[in-house]
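Hello, quick one for you while I still have it in my head. No rush at all, and the record is pasted right below.
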Amino acid sequence: MRNIWKIRLLLWMRDWVFVALVLLLPILFMLVMGAAGSFEPQPVIAVAVADEDRTDYSKLVIERFSGKEGLRVIQGSESDVKKLAETYKVEAAFVIRKGFKEAILNEEIRERIDVFKNPGSLSYGILEEMLGSEVARLSANAEAANMAVRVYREYELSPVPEAALWERVRAYTDAQWEPKPLLTLEEKKWTADRMPKVANVVPVSSALLAGIGILLVLLMLLLLLSSAWLIEEREAGILRRARSVPGMLGKLYMGSVLAQLTIAAVVVLFCAGIAYAGFGTGLLPHPLLYVLLAVYMVTASGIGMAIAVHVRSSGQLAAAAPLAAILTGFVGGCFWAFLPVPDALAMLALCTPQGWALSGVKEWLAGESVRGFETAGGVLLLMGILLHVYSFWRVQAKKA
């Protein structure tokens, strides 16, 4: 069996198309990890502001906005800030129109600030509220001062000039915002212990879960395509000759499947190295999760062998493998592993090996239930054994 394992690996190493596939899979993994990183909480949010009014009021708004924690404000012209938003350099761009101060003083502030967000922005709404709070502060101050002037004017109560009265009321109103406003909004981050079920929300890196999800799809694709060895051996008459030697067929089958799993393990090592070197995170934070991944690979190879015993040519297998990998990955939730899903979709995902693998990973990472992790591993192992037993029976019975 060891010799068959070595020969199978050597044959694959000489196939430049197969080698290119093995090298391409970690590259795809790296791209997905990088893309999913955009969903991570960022320590600083970049935002651009253009000041066309150029008054003390607009400058004060920008100054206070820039002082907000977690923001990096970039100032420029209207065209500059729009370009920054369009090229994803900032989350949003704000343009303070000319006449802003005059509108504040006259209590007419609508449509004096324009907002331009980049198409992928997730936080522009919060940024609008943060900037709007500073505008509301100036507006409230001006409104209170205007009202005081009107009341004093109506009842002829003012012993001082109206300008001095207006400034005194404005300053008093503005002082009420310190050390904090009279009304505040408290923001809380919901964690897994406050969510209903771990299968839907897991408190780990979104890039990590996205990487695990796409890795499951890539491993499925690799193991399905590498199952073509059975078709090639059948067409070359090697299966027929192996049946004539007692025990040879079993060694051929086991050695070739072990070679498949070896190649898959190499891809996992490449991806783990990319995750550590490029993103500063381990692919799987616990050794038992690698055991679960190994059991998943056994199941995926069993699916590949079960398909290979039924198709007539390598071309048919090559056509079916991508469809099967993508379809099962889609249903299994691999493409949105880091997003919460409804319970109905979580149950549907368990119709696929990817769904069970992700369920086991999430159960372990969340620390909710070791039994759930063991159940996922047990189901995958049982599926893999049954599929390989069925495939070998087909081969041995001359039906493949």
Q: What stands out?
A: Residues 190-203 have pLDDT under 50 and may be disordered.
